[in-house]
Structures are given as C-alpha cells and as structure tokens.
Here is the input.
Amino acid sequence: MITSSYGDIIREGLWTNNPGLVQLLGLCPLLAISGTVVNALGLGLATIATLVISNTLVSLLREHVRPEIRIPVYVLIIASAVTAIELVMNAWFHGLFLVLGIFIPLIVTNCAIIGRAEAFASRNSVPRAALDGLAMGVGFTGVLVAIGALREIVGQGSLLDNAHLLFGEWGRGLRIEIFPQEHGFLLALLPPGAFLAMGLLIAVKNLIDARLEARPIPTATPEPKPAQP
Amino acid sequence: MRFRTCTSPHIVPGHSVGRLMRQVLYALVPGTLAMTWFFGWGVLVNVVLSVLFAVMFEALMVALRRRPVMATLGDSSAVLAGWLFALAVPPLTPVWVLLIGTAFAIVVAKHLYGGLGYNPFNPAMVGYVVVLVSFPRELSLWPSPEGIMEASLTFWQTLQTTLTGRLPDGMDWDAITRASPLDMMRDSLVAGQTVTEVTRSPIFGSFSQTEWEWAGNLFLLGGIWLLYRHVITWHIPVSMLLSLAIIAGVFWVFDPDQFASPAFHVFSGAAIIGAFFIATDPVSAATTPRGRILFGVGIGILTYVIRTWGGYPDGVAFAVLLMNMVAPTLDHYTRPRIFGHSRDGHG
Here is the structure.
C-alpha cells in the first residue's frame, strides 16, 4: 500500500473522504443524535476518542493478529475503548450521558470506526493510524455538529441549548435564542429533518467540489469572480 | 411532445400533459365552490395563494435547473399541486404555513427528485403532511360552517386573517372553529360514547356532517366527469372507496357501537377527493391495471387503519404516501402479459 503523507491523511478525513458526507458511514448516530449542537458535539467527541484509541491499538497489534480472526479482535478493541469512554462520561458528564443514552455503547457498531481499523490502521504505522483516527473523527464530528446546528436553529430556534451538560455551569450562558421555541419547525427535530439536513449538506459539498474543479489552476493574477459551474 | 406523422389520414389526439392537468383543474371547480360556500372565503384565499406560491417555486426551480420556464409552467402541474394542497389545509391557515407547505411540495417533493414525471411521492400530499406534522396547532383549526356563518367574515377580513394569522377584533378561534366529524367521532369514541350518540348530535347529516357530504358529492361529480373524459381510469377510485367501505363494513357489523358505518367513512374527510383526485396522480400512482387495483385497496385499508387506530383523525394523505412508496414494486409484479407471449413471459 502506498503510504500517504500526513497532509493527505488530514485532507482525506476532513474533506475528500469524510466519513459522514462521502463514505456515508455511521449514519445511525449521525441521524439520531444530531437534534441539538450539544448532543452532536458530545457524541462527536466520544467518537473522536474511540477512533484515536482503536486506530492506535489496531496499528500496534497489526503484526501479531492473524488475518482470519482480525475482525473479532478489532471489535474487542473498539468495545473496550467504548466501555472506558462510557464510564468516563458517566462519571464526569452524567447529564450528557443520560441524554445520549444507548448511543454511547452503540459507538461500538459505528461502521466508520471498524472501517478505519480495517482499511487504514491495520496497514499503517502507529503515528499515521492515530492521525487518521483524529482526522476522521474530527471530520465526522464536524458533520454531526453542522447537522445539529441546522436542526436546532430551524427546529427550536436556539443554538447551544443545554450547553451546561458539556461545559459545566458557565455553559448555561452560551445558549443563543433566535426565536421562541413554540414557532419551531417541528419536522427538523423529527427523523425526516435529519435526512433532509444530511442531504442538503452533501449537496452543498458536491457544489463546492464542482466549483473547485471548474476553477482553472490558480495563477499569479487573482481572479475577479468565481467560475460558474 | 407530439410526433407529427405525414401521409395517411391519422387522427391527431389532443392529449398533452397540460391538457390533462387542466381537465383535472376544471373537475375540481364544483367541489371547491361548494367548500367556499360552506367554509367561507378562506377556501378561495387558500387556493389563490397556494397556486401563486406553487407556480412561483416551480418557476424558481425550473430556472435554477436551466430548463425552459414558460414551457414547464404551461403544463399546469404546479397549479394542480398548489390547488390540492390548498384544499387539504383548513381555511384561514396563516400564509407562512401555505408558503412552507408549497415549498416542500414543489421544491423538495418534486424538483429535488427530478421534476414532473420523476417524483415518487405525490407533491401536494408531501406538502400537506409536512405542515400537518410540523404545525399541529395551526392545522387543527377547522372553522365550522355555523361559526363561519355567524362570524360572516368578508373577503378582505379573510385575507387579512390569512396574512396576519390573527382574527379581526372581537372574534376568537374558539367561536368559529369546531372539531370536524372525523375528529369528533374519534374523540367521542375514545371518551366512551357510542357511534349512535355521536351521530345524533345536530351537526350530523345522514352520513356525516351535512356540509362535508355536499362538498364530497360535488367532488364526486367532478371525479365522474374525469372518468367520462378518460383522464383517469376507474381502477384506483373504485378499489379505494370499495375497500374502505368493506373494511369499515366488517368492523361495523361486528360492533356498530364502537366503529362508524361504512357510509360515514366514505363520505367524510378526504376520502372522495382523495380517491378521484389525489390517489390517481399519474406520476406517483401504480400504472398497470392490476397494480392500480392493489394500490387503491392499499390506500383504502390504510386510511381506515389510520383513522381508527392511528394518531391523526384523517389518514388519506398518509395512506397515499405510504402506497406511493410501494407503487414501483406493484408495477413490477403486475406487468400485463404481452400479447402472443405465454404466462411466464417466454415463447
């Protein structure tokens, strides 16, 4: 396998091979937990931690695991990491832990994580694997938070509601109210809203990609206007 | 698109999408006028505004997709979607609800899927279900005919109410709104009353509320005219109304105190207009003869199930959307035998 540069690994995870927008992996938590920014951020951070830990461990053990039993071994590693993270969240972010509920243990079955273990970590050195876990995790969290923000604004007219669950008591002041909650567009908070927001985000990403591709190779002279697709 | 053929005497049929859609619009006129008569100017205001918004969104999306705007608007499909949406929502619905509903109908349900001919779901019903699920308060305020008559809102007052969402001074919603027959039947049955006790109340006519029956009759008239003009076939309306009547009849015979009569189900709510105008949408419905019958039966049964045990008083919109989802499968398994071929499609 061709070893990719650190820059490539970061670019892949954040944009060109984003788990949420391009690989479409881990849609279950992506759609279920993206009702508000804080829920999305909480689950995103837990996913980042899991990805970094599991990618590092899988990469460390890649020489010692026989290919026939690699999947059960990966699942064990991921499950151990998630269990540890679940206990940490139960201890320090108990409110958020109760809100996220079943979706924390369900990180084990997030295909983005086992996908990275199988496709990247099992074939690359430890620093690369750890960086890939971080980049993919941040890319996933970015999408999660973007969908969360969209749904929270449209659905209940606020931003960063319940921030104290994540940031402690001072977080209560972070809540921004855009319009009263009773005028919210209920559909955005229901499951169809998650699918619509996701579809719109993918469309925006494709639009940006198309514009970037249509733009001629940048030269010394700055362009007056972006090219039309 | 019309293919011109030269030589030989050919009869050129006048069919085009625009002509078809306009005939459906003509057939909607008597029922719409009846609803305006019973429920006030609000119905007409809804229709005008929704059609305006629908055409606006259609023009916007067609322009964004770089297609010929005037030619696409000429097929009147956006007008029809806006009109059907307007008849589904209560009169006096605030204008922003109409705007959001038509936006979802035209932008999301129609053009994001590829425009007319590619939409798997009935656009008008998608718009209606979106606002029904999102704004339950606004969508439950059905004015009662008596309330409208007492309030006697003028056309301008109605328009003002729709635009501002507030009734003129000295009137309030409680005075002019009332539960529709389906709502009332549902709530009273849950509260432990029997069907006879509910239908004995003065607002009920012989089958359902008199005004609803009359609107239904006139929509039925329009539907029969469509059948006569061969715009729609008999399969979907007949199978839908028949299956609704049969399943309602079975439960009614079983326990007439707990379940409303088949006639009540057929003549109240959106059953008639749904059977003739909404379920027969040529794009999102099944297209083979046997497929259409199954499609209609599915809508009839689902409508009854949702009305009787579901969370909403009327289920026609949900039933149509659910059956839209299976229409391609129905078409696949009910393909008619090609002439000269054996049953398994060979030879």
